Amino acid sequence: MKISILGLDSVGVANALLLGQNEDVLGYDQDEEKIRTLKRKNLAIQDDFISKFINEKKNKDKMVCKF
After folding, report:
1. What letter does residue 31 receive in the DSSP assignment?
2. What InterPro entries does this protein's entry cite (predicted)?
3. Higher pLDDT, 9 or 65
4. Which of 2, 33, 43, 49 is the most buried (most CB within 10 A)?
């Protein structure tokens, strides 16, 4: 299944991480800087589990800056 997430603030990112464990996720946001930050694996959410998950996961999620 392919899932799209519109808006990558804290709720959108959390949903993308959760759903991306087993599905392909495509995240959209209109803020180019937010996309660049996420691609560098820098998150506004400070959580040890999320950080570990992001750094260990073979990231197949994609993020696009278009709306």
Report:
1. -
2. NAD(P)-bd_dom_sf (IPR036291)
3. 9
4. 43
Report the C-alpha gap between 2 and 62 in whole angstroms. 11
Report residue 52 as tokens.
Answer: 């570990």
| Six token digits for residue 25 | 């996720």
Nearest to 3 by CA among 65, 30, 15, 29: 15
H/E stretch holding 16 reads: helix 10-19
Identify the residue with better confidence: 44 or 17. 17
Pairing of strands 62-64, 24-28: parallel
CB neighbour list of residue 40: distance below 8 Å, 6 or more residues apart: none
- Output the CA torsion 53→56→41→10 (10° steps): -10
At position 55, the amino acid (one-letter code) is: N
